[in-house]
Design brief:
Elements: E1 2-11, E2 16-21, E3 34-39, E4 42-54, E5 57-62, H1 68-72, E6 78-81, H2 96-99, E7 103-106, E8 111-120, E9 125-130, E10 135-138, E11 144-148, E12 153-156
Parallel strand pairs: 7-12
Antiparallel strand pairs: 1-2, 1-6, 2-5, 3-4, 3-6, 4-5, 7-8, 8-9, 9-10, 11-12
Amino acid sequence: MVVMGRVSAPHGVKGWIKVLPFTQDIDGLLDYSEWWLGRDGQWRQHQVAESAMHGALVLARLEGCTDREAAGSLKGAEVAIPRQLLPESREGEYYWSDLLGMDVVNRRGVHLGRVAKVLETGANDVLVLEGEKEVLVPFVHGVILNVDLAGRCLAVDWELDY
């Protein structure tokens, strides 16, 4: 599953939810008629009855979600799409979910850690590595040398003491 947003709150009294999208194009979720909502990797499939953009948020009404209480119970749930339903990424672009768990080594072959999460900072994305200590690595050209999706390894021009 690729997490593409999070339910932030109910919207109105008729079962609509507000979703904060994590997609590059904020309307990316509107392309899918089925969403999987869940917490801690436990997913449940939902049919999207209606959806629309509302500023930087996506508003949606899911089948069977008919009132504010039902919508409120979804607050905090992640919204995901199965990876196989997403378009292939273009050369040099990666889904964040594909980077999670990858080993990261620098030019000298030092293992810096594994990608635990990716932060969007506005200026650029940042990889958060877990290892001996937490390391933050900017995901920018010049720092990221190679992304080997098949080998599950990232090569970077970075040191532990940066």
